[in-house]
Amino acid sequence: MAGGADSCFLGFDFSTQQLKVIAVDGNLEVIVQSSVQFDSELPEFRTRGGVHIHDDKLTVTSPALMFVKALDVLLEKMRNAGFDFSRVKAISGSGQQHGSVFWRKGARQTLNHLDPQKHLHLQLQECFALQDCPVWMDSSTSDQCQFLEAAVGGAQRLADITGSRAYERFTGSQIAKIYRSKPEEFSETEVKLNRISLISSFASSLFLGDYAPIDFSDGSGMNLMDIFERRWSQVCLDAAAPQLAERLGDLTPSAAVLGCVSLYYTERFGFAPSCKVVAFTGDNPGSLAGMRLQEGDLAVSLGTSDTVFLWIRDPRPSTEGHIFCNPVDCGAYMALICFKNGSFPRERIRDECAGGSWERFSAALRSTPMGNHGNLGMYFDVMEITPPAAGVHRFNAEGQRVSWFEQDVEIRALLEGQFLAKRVHAEKLGYKILAGTRVLATGGASSNKDILQVLSDVFNAPVYTIDVTDSACLGCAYRALHALEAETGASFTETLRNAPEPQLAVRPTPGAQEVYAPLMLRYAALEAQLLKDHQKSLHLL
Ligand code: XUL
C-alpha cells in the first residue's frame, strides 16, 4: 500500500456548480471533504448554477477565472481548517466533461513561474484567450456537428472512430464554432503548445505549473480522438480547425503520473516537492472509479446532469450514447448516456409542488402508487440530449396530453419519467437487467431513499450506494493512489480491494416489473412520437 495511514491522496472535482475535494488516507478512509459553491461563494462571477446561459438560450459558458479563484478559496479553506498538505503523496481530479479552456499566448510562461506570494487568480487573469469557456450544457453548435459528420462520412462513421456521433456539447464542434466565429481569439492561442485544454487538463495544468496533457478517457468526449487507436484522428481534427494537433498537445493514459506539483504549492501550502500530479479525467470516468464499477453493474449518477454508465469490453459504437476509453483499465471501455435535465427540474418541481422541501417531495412519492395511475411526464426544461427534445409534456392514462397534474402526481411523474428514460435508453444500447444486476447510484439525489426506491422499482433491481455522494472526487483520490501503486504492476481493483464496498440501499417493491414493463413501452412510444412531431415542426419552419 502506497504509504500507510500517514500518507494521503487528494481527488478534486471541477464540476458545473462547485469545486470539491476529498482526501483519503493510505488505508482508503475518507479523512476530509470540502467544497466551494460557485454561485454563492464567488458571487462576483454572477453565475446561476455555475454557468451563464446566453440570450440565444443555446450558448452556455462558465468564466475560466472562476475555476481558478475557486481553487484559491478551496486550498485556503483547507489550510485554515488545519489540513496538513505535506502528507499528500499524490493528487488527481476530474472536470465536467467536454468543456474547453483557451489559453492565451504567454500563459505557459506565467504557469511556469507562479509567484507563491500571490493568489492564482490574480496571476492568471490575463492568461485566457477566451474569458468564457464553452461547457457541456451548450447546444449551439448544430451546424458544426453536421459539418463534422459530413466530413468523415456520416454519423455512424464518426461514431466508429470517436465513440460518438457528433454532439453539440462535444469539444470538436465547440472548437470549430470558436474558430469560425472568433478568429481573432483563436489566433491568440499559441501554436506548438498544448493551449486548448479540457476543464480536466486545465485543472491539472494549474497544479503542474505547465500545460498538462488530455487523458484518453476525457479525450474520448471530444469527437476528435480515435478511441481504438488512442490518438487524435486527423480527419476529425482537420474538419474542426487548422493546426489542432499542436494546439491540443499529446494524449496520455488516464493513470499517467504527469510530474510533481509546482513550487507554488510547496511554498504556499507546504505540499511535499515529491507530491505527484496524476492525469485528471472527466467527472463520469472519475465516478466509474469512485463507485468501483464492475462489469455487469449499471451506474446512475443523479447530479446537474443525470448519467447512466456501464463498463464494457467490446464496444460497438452507435449513433446513440457514447463510448469512452475506460479510466482505470486501458484494455476496456465505458458506455455513457447523458440526460441534461437532471437536478434543475427536480429542484424546480420540489419548489413548485413541495414548498421547497425534500421531505414533502419524499412524502409525495410515498403517497402515490407505482405507475402513477398511468400518468406520465417528460420534463425537458432545457433542450435535452437524450432524446433531443424540449418542453414539458404530460400524458394521462388514456395517452391524452394534459396541461397539469396534481402536485403529488407531478412529483412522481417527474421521477418516473426520468428513470423510465434511463432504462429505455440503456436497453436500446443493449443493456439487459439480469438476476444479479446491481444499480449503483451516486450524485446529490442519491442520498434520498424515496427517490432511490423509484429508481429501484423502475429498473426492477436492487440499488446500492457509496457513503460519499461525490463519487468523482473519491474516484480521483483512488486513482491518485493507484497511479503510485501501478508502478508495482497492481491493477486498480487490487489496489482498491480493501475500500468500502457499495451498500444495499433499497430493493424493488414486489410487483414492480408488472407495473413498469408496459410503462416502458408506452414511454418509448411517446418519446418517438414527440421526436417525430419535433422533426415535422422543424420542416415547417
Ligand atoms: C457527459 C456530460 C455531463 C458532464 C457533467 O457527457 O456532458 O455529464 O460531464 O459534468
Automatic annotation (TrEMBL):
InterPro entries assigned to the protein according to its UniProt record, in alphabetical order: ATPase_NBD (IPR043129), Carb_kinase_FGGY (IPR000577), D-XK_euk (IPR042024), FGGY_C (IPR018485), FGGY_N (IPR018484)
GO process terms (BP): D-xylose metabolic process; xylulose metabolic process
Keyword Kinase: yes
The keyword Transferase is assigned to this record: yes
Membrane-crossing residue ranges in chain numbering: none
Xref: Pfam families: FGGY_C (PF02782), FGGY_N (PF00370)
Domain Carbohydrate kinase FGGY N-terminal intervals: 130-286
Catalysis performed (reactions): D-xylulose + ATP = D-xylulose 5-phosphate + ADP + H(+)
Gene3D superfamilies with a match to the protein in the record: 3.30.420.40
Carbohydrate kinase FGGY C-terminal domain: residues covered: 298-483
Cellular component, GO annotation: cytosol
GO terms, molecular function: ATP binding; D-xylulokinase activity
Keywords: ATP-binding, Carbohydrate metabolism, Kinase, Nucleotide-binding, Transferase, Xylose metabolism
EC number, as in UniProt: 2.7.1.17
The protein's role, per its UniProt record: Phosphorylates D-xylulose to produce D-xylulose 5-phosphate, a molecule that may play an important role in the regulation of glucose metabolism and lipogenesis.
Family indicated by similarity: Belongs to the FGGY kinase family.
Name listed for the protein in its UniProt record: Xylulose kinase
